[in-house]
Amino acid sequence: MVLTAAILGFFTLTLQTDVARAQSVTFYLFIVAELTNAVNCRSEYNSIFKVGFFTSKAMIVAILVSLGLTALLFVPGSILGTLFGIVPLELFEYLYGIIIVAIVIGSVELLKLFFRRKMKLRSTEKI
Question: Structure pTM?
Answer without folding.
Answer: 0.83
